[in-house]
């Protein structure tokens, strides 16, 4: 039997979909502010939660028709226009191309699809103890 998510875990997932901020999602879902960052990190690696988030993301893509591919395609098109490799797709007399604004909008869309990493993702165990390091060095000598 497949383990189910608790109501709080489901709420965390729905809150995470709002801004992709795990700590804030944990707080909004009702976890303690003091432990929200730890809870978020733990939740985001739990298989049942990542599976549910994948389902939510898929439903969102269907609703909005915004996919990682569509964002990358638009970023590329904007770059081609700004570099002069492609003409503007509209009448220059009626519209002004705000490449900076368009780029920022596409960047924000990309962040919602996790196309860009703002922070370095860390391992669950970020360092070794002195004893583990000594053991590894001994193992290398053999």
Average pLDDT for all residues: 79
Low-pLDDT regions: none
Classify the fold: give the CATH topology of the largest domain: Arc Repressor Mutant, subunit A
Amount of helix: 55-70%
What is the alpha-carbon Rg in Å?
22 Å
What would you note in describing this structure?
- This protein folds into two domains: 64 residues, Orthogonal Bundle (Arc Repressor Mutant, subunit A), CATH 1.10.10; 52 residues.
- The mean pLDDT is 79.
- Helix content is 61%, strand content 0%.
- Helix 1 crosses helix 2, helix 2 packs across helix 3 and helix 5 packs antiparallel against helix 6.
- It is extended and about 70 Å long.
- The protein contains seven helices and no strands.
- It has 142 residues and is mainly alpha-helical.
Short description, anyone?
This protein is mostly helical and 142 residues long. Helices cover 61% and strands 0% of the residues.
Fold topology:
Layout: H1 7-19, H2 22-28, H3 36-43, H4 47-64, H5 68-82, H6 99-112, H7 130-141
Helix pairs in contact: 1-2, 1-4, 2-3, 5-6
Question: Tags for this entry?
Answer:
2 domains; 142 residues; single chain; 7 helices; Arc Repressor Mutant, subunit A; mainly alpha; extended
């Amino acid at each position: 039997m497949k383990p189910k998510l608790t109501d709080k875990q489901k709420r965390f997932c729905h809150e995470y979909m709002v801004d992709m901020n795990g700590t804030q999602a944990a707080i909004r879902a009702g976890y303690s502010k003091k432990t929200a960052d730890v809870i978020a990190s733990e939740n985001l690696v739990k298989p049942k939660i990542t599976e549910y988030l994948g389902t939510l993301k898929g439903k969102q893509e269907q609703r909005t028709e915004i996919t990682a591919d569509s964002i990358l395609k638009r970023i590329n098109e904007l770059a081609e226009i700004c570099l002069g490799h492609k003409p503007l797709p509209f009448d220059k007399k009626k519209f002004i191309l705000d490449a900076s604004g368009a780029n920022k909008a596409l960047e924000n869309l990309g962040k919602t699809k996790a196309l860009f990493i703002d922070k370095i993702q860390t391992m669950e165990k970020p360092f070794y103890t002195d004893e583990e390091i000594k053991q590894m060095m001994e193992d290398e000598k053999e």
